[in-house]
Design the sequence.
DNA sequence: CCATAAAATGGTAGCGCTGCCAAAAAAACT
DNA sequence: AGTTTTTTTGGCAGCGCTACCATTTTATGG
């Protein structure tokens, strides 16, 4: 044992005693709730300072009705998307004295289910999830729980309570329409695990449908059953081109994958976009710093987090908010 | 209000009543602690299932002595470094039934202080921080608190309790020695806010000292007072080269910045490494997928998180663990 | 079959705080 | 000075659970 553990922490009762006032008075002063005189406040604060009192929020939450915890159950932390959402939510939650708790599902619905159960044990004020796809038991728990639910980053489906995001289907369609408009006709796809990342799956199917509807079916595709990464993007494009060399454009499941594809082209001297066009998804800053700005779709990730937090703070009524997205006509497609 | 809120949740007492056993029996069964018969367990579990009981961990934590919360107070979520650390810690903590809570400081010591105070109110089992540099009051609170403290990602200094990481000074030195060994003599630096990111500051000063000690002082530098980013790296190199065109190598504060520099060279046709060498820090996967693998230092970020969590789970005695790092002799320097 | 050990169970006092209510003190009117 | 109103204050019952102890039940042994 390194430092001084196992000492019993200072309690509110001790502060009350030291200040010569009642417990409820200390509680009122500390929460600035109810009325108390100036001299009482001073005495309490002096005692707090002197004893180094730190209120015990565990006890506070148990005693009062509502908790100030917000539970995030997100697919991944490596994916900058969720980091952005958390960042957006962070500031707003803090302002309203909420505390964020989180857990990572690795895109696994079963793990999500287990983690939601575990989170609900903390009686959070809200549970924030990614997307609409959850297990039956997850839905059941969430409905039974006495808390708000925000499903983020998607609006294609039926929300449980609140939802903030944008349409992945519309994004897939917009991407396809853009490539068609630019005249590409031999279009391929390089993606990652679609079963687990259902939002990427929605983009993909909508992308394909749009192509087909325009008489230009998807020429080929290369899909990894793993998480997305720059490396996977590069390998994926390599395999795809080996099989179907005459492609004139490739749609990637996201910007990371697209960057990998871009690197592959650079390494092999494939000229972009004349020999091969590249299109991504997310609109990361990184893509816009490339020698040729990446053509992609910019999604309001930080705004999603901010709004989600705001809705919880304001105890807004159930609703679905579509924040939209922006297509960036970069230089790679 | 969308869903069914404000219903009172099922309590342990209700489960006990429904199962026809005492409260303590239910508690024992649920925690698999103490002894109980098979038929009792079945009756309890049936009641739990039927009522949809979810244990209230707030109450549980208050009643028992030690909490199972681990508080992470980290500088940033956008920086993949911390995401990696959290990812590493996540699995281990979960195994041991710990729950992670986190807050982001944006590299601001004052915010760190406020957040540590706020975190301590949850009476966590441990507080995980980045580095050794904290405000006086932060140190004081941490010492007074009845919890473990892990300072991560640095070992150059005096630890409060536990520390897991690697030496940023040694990394700076190794980078300088590598560039010198390769024969570079006109070496520049492109970095970000060194006052706030003290670990980057340590690398920088150690890098400079090593150069000087070898009679090759730093030729020039370009330092932004903001967070690191690919874009800043690109702009930084642009400015640096405009001022000092004869540089033959540039040391970047991290891989993101270096990637920006790489993009800048690609865009301007600067040949790497013959015209200009580039060296980064972190060893992100991304850097190794570039057409030319980035020369950099790979840091054990995930391992840092894992070990930090393990030490907490095992209630290990105070100690400092240096996980070391690996210099990647890529193709850019 | 009784003594003794072991296993299973229930009762209940808190954990530290908040919310409610009643009481006391101060202020504002007659 | 005597009321009435308003502001401050303290007491105390929980919040839902766990830890401890006492008690009952079951198993073991001679």
Sequence:
């Amino acid at each position: 044992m390194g430092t001084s553990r196992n000492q019993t922490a200072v309690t509110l009762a001790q502060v009350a005693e030291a200040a010569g006032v009642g417990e409820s008075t200390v509680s009122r002063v500390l929460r600035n709730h109810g009325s108390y005189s100036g001299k009482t406040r001073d005495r309490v604060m002096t005692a707090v300072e002197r004893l180094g009192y730190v209120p015990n929020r565990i006890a506070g939450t148990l005693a009062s009705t509502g908790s100030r915890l917000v539970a995030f159950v997100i697919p991944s932390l490596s994916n900058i998307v969720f980091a952005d959402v958390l960042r957006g939510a962070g500031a707003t939650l803090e302002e309203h004295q909420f505390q964020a708790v989180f857990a990572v599902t690795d895109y696994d619905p079963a793990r999500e289910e287990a983690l939601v159960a575990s989170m609900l044990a903390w009686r959070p004020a809200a549970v924030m999830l990614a997307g609409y796809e959850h297990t039956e038991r997850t839905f059941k728990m969430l409905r039974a729980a006495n808390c708000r639910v925000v499903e983020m980053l998607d609006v294609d489906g039926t929300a449980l309570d609140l939802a903030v995001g944008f349409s992945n289907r519309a994004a897939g369609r917009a991407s396809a329409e853009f490539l068609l408009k630019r005249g590409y006709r031999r279009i391929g796809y390089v993606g990652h695990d679609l079963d687990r990342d259902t939002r990427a799956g929605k983009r993909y199917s909508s992308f394909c449908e749009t192509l087909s509807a325009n008489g230009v079916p998807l020429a080929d595709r290369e899909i990894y059953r793993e998480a997305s990464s720059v490396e996977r993007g590069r390998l994926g494009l390599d395999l795809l081109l080996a099989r179907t060399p005459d492609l004139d454009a490739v749609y990637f499941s996201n910007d990371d994958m697209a960057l990998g594809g871009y690197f592959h082209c650079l390494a092999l001297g494939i000229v972009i976009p004349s020999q091969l066009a590249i299109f991504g998804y997310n609109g990361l800053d990184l893509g816009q710093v490339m020698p040729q700005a990446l053509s992609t779709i910019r999604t309001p990730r930080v705004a999603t987090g901010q709004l989600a937090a705001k809705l919880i703070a304001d105890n807004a009524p159930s609703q679905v908010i579509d924040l939209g997205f922006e297509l960036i006509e970069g230089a790679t497609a």
